[in-house]
Structure formats: structure tokens, C-alpha cells
Write a structure and sequence with these properties.
186 residues, alpha+beta, Peroxidase, domain 1, 4-stranded mixed sheet
Length: 186
């Protein structure tokens, strides 16, 4: 998989790699992954938290105090709690979403899995996730770990990014294709 040359991806890879090494040494990779998923959900559900991590207006001290309070209230302790505090102290909160994605990718590779990004119009049921995992395993030839994000603008279907491949079965894309085809006819 090609690595991006953006500064954010470089920072994210380094921090995620360090966190993975610590988690592997402590045999806590799964619990760290679960805690990071919780952090990712909190960021997605809170506009204030998203603004805190993205805005350069907040001082390092303010970010560190806020992250400490949020982690304590959410029960995020241990490696992930300390990790978030260090990231805030180093003024790298803006890269936390990329760090989470990089950690997930590193952990999946270590387990012999490949990772995929799945965007769905609606939340997937457990049965749908199991079926999707089986289908992706057939395509990739090995186990696939994936994170599902919901984007209602897709209207229906899925967009799956697996390595350099993208499979787009969304209704939005099909309607846009039909719209273009009709413009060419008329």
C-alpha cells in the first residue's frame, strides 16, 4: 500500500507505530484498538471535541486539560489515556483521526489481515458485517478488518476501499452515472 507523503500521515504513522509497539509489549493490542474506536466515535459525535482537536486556537495546556478531563470522564485509562495526553502536550491532536486509522492498519497487518474502509448509507447489522467480511475475504484472499462509517448522502449501497481498489455500489454514484448518460443522449 502506498504511503502518503503528507506531513499529517507521517506524524500519524510515527505515533501509531509507537503506540502499537507499547501495546504489543503489554499484550494489549485489542484493548487499545477498542479504546481508540471509542475515541473515534466520541470525535465523530461531538462537534466541540472535533473543534478542540482541529483548532490551532487552543493552547497546548488547554488541549491537555480538556483531553485529560474527557479521558477521565470517558474512562479511557492506561496506554490510550497516556497516549492522548502526550499527543495533546506535543500539539498533535489534529492528527488523532489519522493516528487511529494508522494504528488500525498496523494492527491488522500484524495479525495477517488487510484493512478496508467501508462507507455505508445506513448502519450495518451484525449479519451484514459478517457477510461483508466473508465477501471481502474472498476478494482479498485473507482476513479483512474494516471500519464502517455512515454517510446518508450515499442513499443506499456501499463504498469499499480495499488497498488501492475502490468498489462503489452506492445509489448516489449510480444516479450520477445515469444523469451523465442522459445528458449525453439529450
Amino acid at each position: 500500500m502506498a504511503k502518503s507523503s503528507s506531513p499529517i500521515s507521517g506524524v500519524a504513522e510515527r505515533y501509531a507505530g509507537s503506540l502499537y509497539e507499547l501495546a504489543a509489549q503489554a499484550k494489549q493490542v485489542e484493548s487499545v484498538e477498542a479504546d481508540l474506536a471509542g475515541v473515534e466515535t466520541m470525535i465523530a459525535e461531538s462537534a466541540d471535541l472535533a473543534r478542540l482537536i482541529k483548532s490551532p486556537v487552543f493552547s497546548a495546556e488547554d488541549q491537555q486539560k480538556a483531553i485529560t478531563a474527557i479521558a477521565d470522564k470517558a474512562g479511557i485509562k492506561g496506554l490510550v489515556g497516556n497516549f492522548l495526553r502526550v499527543v495533546a502536550q506535543n500539539r498533535r491532536l489534529f492528527a488523532v483521526p489519522a493516528m487511529i486509522a494508522a494504528f488500525r492498519r498496523i494492527a491488522a497487518e500484524a495479525r495477517g489481515e488487510t484493512s478496508a474502509e467501508v462507507t455505508s448509507a445506513h448502519a450495518l447489522t451484525a449479519a451484514q458485517e459478517t457477510e461483508l467480511k466473508a465477501a471481502l475475504k474472498q476478494v482479498a484472499g485473507k482476513d479483512v478488518a474494516f471500519a464502517v462509517t455512515v454517510d446518508p448522502s450515499l442513499l443506499g449501497g456501499l463504498v469499499v476501499k480495499l488497498g488501492s481498489r475502490q468498489i462503489d455500489t452506492s445509489l448516489k454514484t449510480k444516479l450520477n452515472s445515469l444523469k451523465l448518460a442522459l445528458k449525453e443522449v439529450g
